[in-house]
Amino acid sequence: MKKWIILLCIALISSVIVPNSHVEASGNFQDIGDSHRAVTEISYLVNKNIINGVTSTHFVPDREVTRGEAAAMIGRSLGLNGTKRDTGFKDVGAGNMASGYIVELVNKKVISGYSDGTFRPNAKLNRGEMAILINRAFNLGGTNSSNSAQILMDKGIAQGMTDGSFGTNVTIIRSDFAVFLARTLNADFRVQSGDTSIFKTTQYVNVGSTTLNMRSKPQITNSPSNVIAKLTHGQAVSVASYTGNWAYIKVNNLKGYVDKSYLQSKKPSAVLPAPPPAAGNDITVIIDPGHGGSDPGADGFGFLEKNVVLNVGNHMKAYFDKTAIQVKMTRTGDTFPSLTQRAQFAGKYGGDLFVSIHANAFNNSANGQESFYYSSRAATNPYTNQSKALSIYMLGRMQEAWPLVNRGVKEGNLAVLRQNTVPATLVEMGFIDSATDIKYIQSETHRKNMGRALFLATLDYYYHYEGRTDLAQYYSVAGSSPSKRLH
Ligand SMILES: [Zn+2]
């Protein structure tokens, strides 16, 4: 194998087994395990090249921090020029690893030497001195060990000792210094004493039908205790900040980390199961505008029955077109299907219900509305009860639409009813040669209202007679609701 291929293979394998260099950085230290209380903060600082191990394999967390080490760590945190150089202090040579940072920090008046011309780089730092250093370096406002300590505690950077004091004269160890420095640099790490103000941004979980692990640390470990909650799709969380791929969040009173790629600012739409079939898409209503073509039907006041019934039929269809219920018309133009063709139409085209629309005429001497069904049990149409109920609901809605004389629901030996194969009705919406009824028949607004009535009556039949409560939603299409039970 060529050398570059071997290198490529190593690179690929490394990228697979080391998914997150952030995590790996702390793993280099044999004395900082996943459960070490400062592992996250040390990882953070190592990643930023602010802190190193004492050796490549050991961090030595309990070793006390010297003034020289503190200067180097703070100097690197501030991004100062650490080039080694002469310091002017008789005990810090140009070769001292912290010499450059000591010079820079002295110039910034963050740290100072002693009156005898020494800096004492190997002297142990105590907590009070640390508080002043951090306050000065990051302009937190403290001027002495007392108020500097208070500021660090107020900000959640440091906590007091168990005896209630700050422990000003207690020397500080490397792991504690790392924790305080990380908290200073990144509010994520700070201790929150009831102060939730850092969790300012509302985001929403978008995980579809799975759940999002919320973790105690910004890293994936095999330890089950790292997962402190499982968040669900659409759940709102409050975000304080982002570190790499992680968001530091608060949910209820729980704080922790989640993969930020599963958060978004807009509430995601709900993950719904597949929608059920649209209500009524199993039903096909046959609309039969009477007459047509060479057969004008009745006439009066210049109006022909064949035209007004087609118009009403089209209005009726328009309401059904706003639902999932199917509609087929025996004619859509000025044509004349035979009565047998109309009666066989439902059987031929999968219809479930038949509504024939007509207008009456009787020598200008009659008026009103009626509906018909075929009552004798014909060989081809056994749906007598259904047809009668349908006719009842039709006339109910027709009376609601146009306040004309109620001539009743009647039995009628009519071919389109007798020869039909589905529940069937024939409606006479009014007398076209009646001076009373023509006021409605001649009006487009009233004809549309009649189309609406025939639509609603069909729903009423299915709702009450067939128990199709799933169709109740469609009454809103016509701004209505189910009729009283009439059959
Ligand atoms: Zn007719």
List the defining traits of the structure above.
14 helices; 487 residues; Aminopeptidase; 3 domains; five-stranded antiparallel β-sheet; 15 strands; SH3 type barrels; binds zinc ion; alpha/beta; six-stranded mixed β-sheet
Strand order, sheet with most strands: 11-8-12-15-13-14
The CATH class designation of the largest domain is Alpha Beta
Helix content: 25-40%
Shape: rod-shaped
Unique ligands? zinc ion
Compute the number of helices: 14
- Our Rg estimate from Cα atoms comes to 43 Å
Characterize the structure shown.
By secondary structure, this protein is of the alpha/beta class. It has three domains: 22-189, no CATH class; 201-264, SH3 type barrels (Roll); 284-478, 3-Layer(aba) Sandwich (Aminopeptidase). The protein has 14 helices and 15 strands. The strands form four sheets. A six-stranded mixed β-sheet has the order 11-8-12-15-13-14, sandwiched between helices. Strands 6-5-4-1-7 form a five-stranded antiparallel β-sheet, with no helix packed on it. Strand 4 (236-243) and strand 5 (246-251) form a beta hairpin. Helix 6 packs across helix 7. The N and C termini lie far apart (89 Å). The model is unreliable at 7-26 (pLDDT under 50). Bound molecules: zinc ion. Zinc ion binds next to loops.
